[in-house]
Amino acid sequence: LLLLASAVLAGLFLREPSVPSDERLRDARRMMLRRQYDQVKPVLAGIPPEDPLYADALLILAEAAIRSDDLAGAIESYRRVLELPAGNKASTRLLLADALMHAGDLEQSVKQFRAFLQERPDDPVANSRLAFLYTATAQRWQSRPLLTRLVQLQAATLEDLVLLADMDRNINQRAFLETCQRSFPEDIYVRLGLADAAEQRGDYSAAIAELQPLVQQHPNLAGAQILLGELLAADTSGRFEKWHRELPPECDQWPGIWYARGLRAQQRNQPTMAARCYGEVLQREPNHRHATFQLGQVLRQLQHPMADAFATRAVQLLNVSNLAVDLQQNTPTAKTEASVRQLVTQLQQLGRLQEAIAWAMLAGQAMPDPAWFRSFLQEHATQLNRDMDLQLAAQNPAS
């Protein structure tokens, strides 16, 4: 018995003391620097949930998971941080939203980006990422406030400005959406984006077949309702009327719904009604290129004196769209200076001064000879403020 007791006491004294949590974190960070990602989890496993450093451990685990292409593991760690009573929730929410986007869980990603922007509305990364998701999933007009915020923050990238230049331009993200579909086939934004992709390639039957159950399940999904309305505008079987009867009350605030109504009125040779509908679009979205063009057409049919003003504006909007896309494909250089100057001038003429200034700032950084752009910026610097509307009313014929 004495020997047994001696052995037990010896074991207690010789046992390695528990490693402090801060030391475990230091070891884990060293392993991250050495790219020993698979060894991080065992080291951090000794930090209990009640430890003040537990949130830091979870964030390191999430980073190790991302570096190991384990998005599911990273998402789990981020969610556990958000469940803790303390910690930097906002930054973690942004990381979670980004991981969800890359995993293909677009519905949850959008939810987390929105929640993050409620706390930090001026974050440029979140505004840009959420704008991308809306653009990729047939909700382009919902990205406008986000892109506008980036312009006001003077944080808009070339890609952001190209998106803002023409919200009606189709964006092909089919490959990205099909990748998302493999993991999240029932995701509502993935389904909407793929319906939009079907419409873009002319497969209208497939687009309608996807959209009809989608709007039944999610009647407040504006992008789906708008796209379905546009596709049914030329229908003669009564499907447009059925769709229209079942619209939620708040849809009158969506410019795309008025655009679909305008298309329907044109199909039925009701130019006065069509003009009214397109006018409603432009009251809500002054730079809706398609509505501007169609309004010019029906006003000409009605011999209205404003027909030429809208027809001219439609041409200017198309020029802006084409110039922006060309510049995206050909990064601003001395060879493209004339195109950038033309784009800046066209935007100014349209009353889109904030965008014009943003393009001039971008060009001033990229051009070998930025003199013209610096002169433009000096001339208009006093007019730039965060509260200025993206569209100046004085140059909007629909105002």
Structural summary, described in words:
The chain has 399 residues and is mainly alpha-helical. The protein has a domain at 21-165: Tetratricopeptide repeat domain (Serine Threonine Protein Phosphatase 5, Tetratricopeptide repeat, Alpha Horseshoe). The chain has helices at residues 2-14, 21-33, 40-44, 54-67, 71-83, 89-103, 106-119, 124-136, 144-152, 158-165, 174-183, 188-200, 204-217, 222-232, 239-245, 255-267, 271-284, 289-301, 307-329, 337-349, 353-366, 371-380. α12 packs antiparallel against α13 (204-217). The radius of gyration is 27 Å and the shape is globular.
Order of helices and strands: HHHHHHHHHHHHHHHHHHHHHH
**Mind telling me the CATH class of the domain at 21-165?**
Mainly Alpha
Helicity level: 55-70%
Which fold name corresponds to the CATH topology of the domain at 21-165?
A: Serine Threonine Protein Phosphatase 5, Tetratricopeptide repeat
Total strand segments: 0
Give the amount of beta strand, in percent.
under 5%
Any descriptors?
single chain; Serine Threonine Protein Phosphatase 5, Tetratricopeptide repeat; 22 helices; globular; disordered N terminus
The gist of it:
By secondary structure, the protein is mainly alpha-helical. Helices cover 68% and strands 0% of the residues.
Which helices and strands occur, and which strands form pairs?
Layout lengths: L1 H13 L6 H13 L6 H5 L9 H14 L3 H13 L5 H15 L2 H14 L4 H13 L7 H9 L5 H8 L8 H10 L4 H13 L3 H14 L4 H11 L6 H7 L9 H13 L3 H14 L4 H13 L5 H23 L7 H13 L3 H14 L4 H10 L19
Helix pairs in contact: 2-4, 4-5, 5-6, 6-7, 7-8, 8-9, 9-10, 10-19, 10-21, 11-12, 12-13, 13-14, 14-15, 14-16, 16-17, 16-18, 17-18, 18-19, 19-20, 20-21, 21-22
